[in-house]
Design goal:
The complex is a heterodimer of chains A (566) and B (361).
Chain A lengths: L1 H10 L6 H31 E2 L2 E2 L2 H8 L1 H34 L7 H13 L4 H10 L4 H6 L10 H26 L2 H9 L4 H30 L2 H6 L7 H10 L4 H28 L20 H29 L1 E3 L3 E4 L2 H8 L2 H31 L5 H13 L2 H11 L11 H12 L1 H13 L3 H8 L4 H30 L15 H10 L3 H29 L12
Antiparallel strand pairs in A: 1-2, 3-4
Helix pairs in contact in A: 2-13, 2-17, 2-18, 3-13, 4-8, 4-10, 4-14, 5-8, 5-14, 6-14, 8-10, 9-10, 10-13, 12-13, 13-18, 14-24, 15-24, 16-17, 16-19, 16-20, 16-22, 19-22, 20-22, 21-22, 22-24, 23-24
Chain B lengths: L7 E12 L3 E13 L4 E5 L6 H9 L6 E6 L2 E2 L10 E4 L11 H11 L4 H14 L15 H14 L4 E5 L7 H18 L2 E6 L2 H7 L2 E6 L2 E6 L1 H6 L4 H6 L4 E11 L2 E6 L2 E5 L10 E6 L5 E3 L6 E9 L3 E8 L2 E8 L12 E5 L5 E5 L2
Parallel strand pairs in B: 3-8, 3-9, 6-7, 7-8
Antiparallel strand pairs in B: 1-2, 1-4, 4-5, 9-10, 11-12, 11-14, 12-13, 14-20, 15-19, 16-17, 16-19, 17-18
The chains are: A mainly alpha (566), B alpha+beta (361).
């Protein structure tokens, strides 16, 4: 009966006047069609249409070219490795923080270190890798004295991506482990199993859906990652996103670029499908024994706990070392050659680099509120109301988020280059790209929050005489405010740090810090690249902290969700 | 103080839902109900009987698929919940977590755009009435379950509604608090004289608070009446079995006269001071409450064997096997001397009155 009651109740739930409702829906659909559906259609038509005829010739040629096949194979291999290693690393971190008693004291520290890669520009780890293991690297050259070292290739790309993306797995796994009451482990323990046996037979099976989900997340991230391979993969290990980029920017071959990016679509689509299945098949019932009792059980023996904690601290130290290295490189004249302290690089980024900084900040600050509003609007529509195209709206709004950035970037390039919507060269195209690509996180957060808000909230408000708009404004809006802030935070962070899609969309008029970092890297101007990276990290940390403080001020304690950026 | 109490009438109300797998489900079937002005009426039934759906239709949260709902002479069937002027107390309280106690109670008054001074005094009075005076600034998550329940109550009555509706409001409280809260609800309702409909599955609660109880079964009202009427004069096996425990014994009417019936039951001829619902020669069901039966070592009445005795302090419960039937008997204020042991042969003494006879269909 519960399911049917919902449909009935939904009909009577908050809904403004008919004209406002219809007009609003129409407007949102128009935006979705223009900024999501239309670019993708343009991408497909460029890839598969020759003079107005459907033709798979170009696709056939692309698939049969050994170079492209190798790129596809490399992409899949890399994604698989990063997926497995990152998930394992994430699991170790999550388990240590949640289950090793001595780790609880340093959990905030570990949280911060794992938070860093999530908010850094995409090249951060790569640059640090070059500084550390490159031909003039701190470890390879200075410390070990190895000459002519080869840093570029699969190994460093894999290592850098794993370090960059494992925090995603950590964040996905930790709440899952936290929700599994230790009393379940205690039960297994009391029945005579060893701690390892309890972990293997109770805890692990319960987190398997979360593990699968984490693996798919990382697989997708690595598959779509453009920045790390561009710096670290080198010429011998090509992957699809960089190949597509080189086709377009190097050879001006839009068609091949489009087709190459679409090759990414096959594994990306499979991952998305698998993810939906995993998520849909998982029960959301929280697995608890009895709440309220502080767990006294040690899930691991003292020695095992110490080993785990030691390992996590070691990895954290590696991350910290990378960031210190980056900072150090930004304040010395020439890293690896002349270690005289200087502020020259900062002078450079605030003079020559100033347009990029200004542009990036303008774009991020405009995109932020737009993305926040867009996120809770669609989230509310698909999460709480009923209309005919609701499911379609939910699916379409997720598309640009689910697709690799390379596909979205090329699609935008193709769609908005000419009339009627010639946006190329404007800030609008960059803002639109970020808003429609990163707001889905706000949408998901809104939907998730709404699931926690019982319908009786709206009914209570109605029973007290409030109309639908009053109920929305006074009750629902304050309750989904955290989702709004989450949306703001994500759009801002991504506007400051993302590159895979927008690299195709920058122009002389409007450019981005991340693109500048890439230019600096290719010109071997490592100092300014490091200085830019440090600047971005500082700004992002500052802004997300401010948003967090604001969020704390504005919302009731009982409603707080996870921190922004998480 | 209270406005004129109004009458609530449901006329031929039905509720049909569409379920994805099970197709159309009728939760409430052609239900008629009249609640008198100022009355405290309880809808009592097990889960899935349609009581909550009925209440939600009265509130306006769900639209009936057919039938009419009247508040006084006003047809409110098509009226949205926010136009009906009701006070609803939810099972989960549904307090607004982002608002303080004061703002929760003031919410309905603010919606009605009342003046600040009036709101202040109304909320203050409301919180006093539920014993939460001085808690204005607390946030909801700082309150205990019982306090939250009181806030929910204060919020509902603050707008001086025409109708008060309760949806299992006490089911999340512990037993002691439940008893305390229900007497406070009754006190408040008497004070305000607002027509009230209360939904519960707890029969003791229903009997303790209601003027009248409507027992619901499969989307219909099985019987409506005072607790006493329902307990002593159930009109169906369902009601007899639902309210309290009852021995339902099948017998045959031997003679049926005015206020005197003789039936054949448990191999025994039994004379009763009651009208028979059926003619002589027809089968009949006798509803006999366990406390109406007396066990004796010997005497008139069917003989049986004690199967078990359970001691509860204020009473002892016996299960006695008589032929194929297992009969429940209760002995109040039991002592050890007059106790029977398992296996004892006893005589079940049937009462001459306080028995309800039901026609067998």
């Amino acid at each position: 009966m519960a399911a049917s009651v919902q449909t009935i109740a939904a009909r009577s739930s908050v809904r403004p006047e008919a004209w406002l409702w219809r007009g609003g829906l129409l407007g949102i659909w128009l935006l979705l069609l223009i900024f999501i559906v239309y670019p993708l259609l343009m991408l497909f038509s460029r890839a598969f249409l020759d003079d107005g005829h459907l033709s798979l010739q170009a696709l056939g040629a692309a698939i049969s070219a050994p170079k492209n096949l190798r790129a596809l194979g490399n992409s899949l291999l890399l994604a698989m490795m990063v997926g497995v290693a990152g998930t394992l690393l994430g699991l170790i971190f999550a388990f240590t923080v949640e289950r090793v008693r001595s780790a609880r004291r340093v959990s905030r520290l570990i949280d911060f270190f794992t938070f860093l890669p999530l908010i850094s520009p995409p090249f951060t780890t790569s640059i640090a890798f070059v500084f550390s293991f490159g031909p003039r690297g701190l470890i390879t050259y200075e410390l070990l004295g190895i000459k002519n070292v080869q840093v570029y290739g699969l190994t460093s790309t894999f290592a850098a991506e794993t370090l960059t993306y494992f925090p995603i797995a950590y964040l996905a796994l930790r709440p899952m482990l936290a929700s599994i009451s230790t009393s379940l482990e205690e039960a297994a323990f009391s029945l005579g199993g060893s701690r390892w046996y309890a972990f293997r037979t109770v805890t692990l099976p319960l987190v398997i859906p979360a593990l699968a989900n984490a693996f798919l997340l990382l697989f997708g991230c690595s598959l779509a990652d453009f920045a790390t391979p561009l710096i670290l993969a080198g010429s011998d290990f090509s992957v699809l996103p960089t190949e597509a980029y080189l086709q377009i920017t190097g050879l001006f071959d839009l068609k091949s670029g489009a087709i190459l990016s679409l090759l990414l679509l096959v594994p990306a689509g499979l991952v998305f499908y698998a993810q939906e299945r995993v998520v849909a098949g998982r029960s959301y019932v929280t697995v608890t024994g009895k709440a309220g009792v502080l767990a006294q059980h040690d899930s691991v023996s003292g020695i095992a706990g110490a080993v785990l904690l030691g390992f996590c601290l070691l990895v954290s130290a590696l991350i910290v070392y990378f960031y210190l290295l980056l900072f150090y490189a930004s304040i010395v004249l020439a890293f690896g050659a002349n270690h005289t302290l200087t502020l020259d690089h900062y002078r450079v980024i605030f003079s020559e680099g100033l347009p990029a900084i200004r542009d990036t900040l303008i774009i991020a600050l405009i995109g932020m509120p737009l993305g926040g509003i867009y996120g809770i609007t669609i989230g509310y529509l698909v999460g709480r109301t009923t209309f005919i195209s609701r499911k379609a709206m939910e699916a379409v709004s997720m598309l640009n988020y689910a697709l690799p950035g390379t596909i979205v970037g090329i699609a935008y390039l193709l769609a908005f280059n000419d009339e009627p919507l010639a946006l190329t060269g404007t800030a609008a195209i960059l803002i639109a790209c970020y808003v429609f690509r990163y707001s889905p996180i706000g949408i998901r957060t809104t939907v998730a929050l709404l699931q926690q808000i019982d319908r009786s909230m709206e009914e209570a408000s109605a029973s007290l005489g409030a109309g639908s708009l009053t109920t929305f404004r006074r009750i629902m809006l304050p309750l989904i405010l955290p989702a709004f802030f989450a949306g703001l935070g994500v759009v801002f962070i991504r506007s400051m740090t993302a590159i895979s899609a927008t690299i195709f969309l920058v122009s002389i008029n409007w450019t981005l810090i991340t693109v500048k970092i890439l230019e600096n890297m290719t010109e071997v101007a490592l100092g300014p690249a490091a200085a830019f990276s440090v600047f971005v990290i500082v700004v992002v940390v500052l802004v997300t902290s401010m948003l967090n403080v604001l969020l704390q001020r504005l919302t009731a304690p009982s409603l707080r969700v996870g921190k922004i950026g998480a | 103080m209270a406005a004129q109490s109004i009458e609530i009438r449901l006329q031929g109300i039905s509720a049909t839902f569409h379920h994805e797998r099970r197709g159309d489900i009728t939760a409430v079937k052609n239900l008629d109900l009249e609640v008198r002005p100022g009355e405290f009426l309880t809808l009592l039934g097990s889960s899935g009987c349609g009581k909550t759906t009925t209440l939600r239709m009265i509130a306006g949260f769900q639209k009936p698929s057919s039938g009419r709902i009247l508040f006084g002479d006003e047809d409110v069937t098509r009226l949205a919940a926010n136009q009906r002027d009701i006070g609803f107390v939810f099972q989960n309280y549904a307090l607004f977590p982002h608002l303080s106690v004061f703002e929760n109670v003031a919410y309905g008054l603010r919606v009605k755009r009342q003046g600040a001074a009036l709101i202040e005094s109304s909320v203050d009075a409301g919180l006093r009435q539920v014993g939460l005076h001085g808690m204005d600034d607390r946030m909801i998550n700082e309150l205990s379950g019982g306090q939250q329940q009181r806030v929910a109550l204060a919020r509902a009555i603050a707008i001086r509604p025409r109708v008060l509706l309760f949806d299992e409001p006490l089911s999340n409280l512990d037993a002691q608090l439940r008893v305390q809260m229900r007497s406070e609800i009754v006190r408040l309702q008497r004070e305000l004289a607002i027509t009230t409909i209360y939904v519960t599955h707890d029969q003791e609660e229903a009997m303790a608070i209601s003027d009248r109880i409507a027992i619901m079964d499969s989307g219909q009202i099985a019987q409506i009446g005072t607790a006493e009427q329902l307990y002593l004069r159930p009109t169906s096996r369902f009601v007899a079995g639902f309210l309290g425990s009852a021995n339902l014994l099948r017998g045959t009417v031997v003679a049926a006269e005015s206020a005197k019936t003789v039936i054949d039951i448990l191999g025994h001829r039994w004379e009763l001071a009651a009208n028979s619902p059926v003619a002589a020669g027809r089968p009949v069901d006798a509803v006999i409450r366990p406390e109406a039966l007396t066990l004796a070592k010997q005497g008139a009445g069917p003989r049986g064997r004690v199967e078990s005795r359970t001691y509860y302090g204020d009473k002892a419960e016996y299960l006695v096997r008589v032929g194929d039937e297992l009969i429940q008997a209760v002995q109040w204020n039991p002592s050890t001397e007059d106790a029977f042991c398992d296996g004892d042969q006893v005589c079940v003494q049937l009462p001459a009155s306080s028995v309800q006879l039901l026609a067998v269909d």
